[in-house]
Amino acid sequence: MRERKRYMWLPFLILSLAITPTRSNTLFIYKSCHTTLYPELCYLYLSHFATRIGTSPRLLAQTALAATLSTTRTTSKQLITYTKTHKMTRREMSAMKDCLEEIGDSAYELHISMVEMGKVRSGSDFLFNMNSIETWVSAALTDDDTCTDGFSDKRMNAEVKIMVTRGASWSLIHHAFFSVRHHYRCNS
Hints:
Elements: H1 2-7, H2 10-17, H3 23-34, H4 39-46, H5 50-53, H6 57-85, H7 90-119, H8 126-149, H9 158-167, H10 170-187
Helix pairs in contact: 3-4, 4-10, 6-7, 6-10, 7-8, 8-10
């Protein structure tokens, strides 16, 4: 229960960050997202926070991490609700249980990433801190992939697959961080 309260403020924080963007801010986000695996999704999501982000690689990275953590938590809640309101086979229930565990791990790793991001300063520990964050984000992305892999069997209910893969779109936002790290390293 305490864990839930800790993250309840994230959606409000993310919504409060969205204000009218300027051209230079949106251009910065566009260029940062352009090198990601899903540039349109990255830009579509992060451009809503252009005024808050400005042209700061740090704020872009922090926003990408906060948004991903918030989306991960929301997806977890939706999947839990789904399991309570829909009949599932034993195989689907087992895969969903594993998936929810992976999502929980992912949320923890994203939280640690945000904590580490708060410690990043230029200087001798800069690369170490950035590498630590990359490791945590990469682990979170792996957890997300593992979750969706559990539903790849053709015998799984199509509705359950759609629910999980649609919910797994949170992993796409992770890619924004990998683009941001390059800018962050170059500009700090």
